[in-house]
Amino acid sequence: PVFLIQTSEMLQKICMRNLVRKYCRELTAERKVQLQQKVVTSAVFSGKKEGYLESLSQPFLETRLKVNDLNPKVLQLISGENIKYVTPVIKYDRNGFKARERLLVLTQSSAYVVEMAKIKQKIEYSTLKGISTSNLRDGIVVIHVPEDKQQKGDVILQCEHIFETVTKLCILANKQSLVKVVKGSLRFRVGSGKEGTMVFTVGPEPQVFKDKTGQLTVV
C-alpha cells in the first residue's frame, strides 16, 4: 500500500538523521579539525592532483616538528606569534636552483623559511599572491609573493607531505581560492622584474634539476 511506502521513506530519513546526529556528537575536537582540513584538501586537489586519493586515508598531523625543535634564536625572532605548523622542506634557489634543507614555519599571520638559526624569508599572509603546485605526484609548491623590496622573489619548496602542507598554508592564510594546480609548467618570479620557468614531466624516477635551457625540471 502507498501509505506503507511513504511511512518507510519517512522512517529511513529519521533513521539517517539520528545516525548523523550520533556520529557528530561522538566526534572529538581533534577529529573535527581533521575533517574540516580534509574538506579543504578535497576542494583544492580532488580530481586535479595525482596521489590525492591515496592521501585520503592518511590523517594530517598537527605539526611535523615541535616548537621545541626550533632554534632558540628563531623562536626569539618570531616571539609573540603563535606557531601553528612546522615541517622540513627542500628549498630551491631562484638562481641556479641549488637544493637547500630548510624549515617551513607557519604562524597565525606569516610563513617563514628558516635555516638553522636564521630566518631567510618571511611572507605575511596578507601579501600572499598565490600558491602553485603541479598535477603530478611531485611535492613541489611555489609560494608567490608581491614584487617589492622586502621580498627576494617567489619561494620554491619541495615538501614530503604536500597535501598536508598546502592545506595548512591556505587555511591559515585564508587563501584557498588562490591555490592553483597547474599542468606542464608554471612561471615564478626570480626578483628584480625577472621570471623563471619550471617544467613538470613524467619519468622513471623522481628528480629535480636544472636543464640545458636553464629551466627547473621536475620529474
Automatic annotation (TrEMBL):
This entry's Gene Ontology molecular function terms read: cytoskeletal motor activity
Segments forming domain TH1: 49-219
* GO cellular component terms listed in the entry, alphabetical order: myosin complex
Pfam families, alphabetized: Myosin_TH1 (PF06017)
The protein's superkingdom reads Eukaryota
Q: Which InterPro entries match?
A: Myosin_TH1
Query: What is the recorded name of this protein?
Result: MYO1H protein
Gene name linked to the record: Myo1h_1
